[in-house]
Structures are given as C-alpha cells and as structure tokens.
Amino acid sequence: MSQTTDLSPEDRSKDAFFARIAEISQEMIGAHGKDFAMGTLVLAARWIADNKIAAAKPPH
C-alpha cells in the first residue's frame, strides 16, 4: 500500500494544496527570484492572519 492511500481525505487535500503552492513558488522563483517568492508567501500569510485575504479578492 502506498503512503498516499494511507492518508485521510483531509490529508490528501492538504497534500494537494502543498503541491500547488510548491508549483506556484517555483514559477515565482523562475520569474522573479527567491526573495520575491518568499516575500509573497510571507505577505500572503500576514494577510490571512489579519483576515485581509477576502477583502483583496477580485470580484468575479
């Protein structure tokens, strides 16, 4: 049995989000460097902590 099949649905979901974040991070590093990628992720974490992420969401 593989490790991913032993995970709960919640853990598989979290792993999928981590994979997406890793992919976006690699794209940011490739386009603008490590400092930009790290700064963006730190800023995103601060926005989440301050509950500003919903306010910054563009309308559909």
Brief description of this entry?
The N and C termini lie far apart (42 Å). The chain has helices at 9-32, 34-49.
Q: What's the SSE blueprint?
A:
Blueprint: H1 9-32, H2 34-49
Helix pairs in contact: 1-2
Name the features.
60 residues, mainly alpha, extended
Q: Please tell me how large the radius of gyration is.
A: 15 Å
Shape descriptor: extended
* Quaternary assembly: single chain
The stretches of 5 or more residues where confidence is low (pLDDT under 50) are: none
Helix count equals 2
Describe this entry's structure for a reader.
The structure is a single chain. By secondary structure, this protein is an all-alpha fold. It has helices at about 10-30, 35-50. The mean pLDDT is about 90.
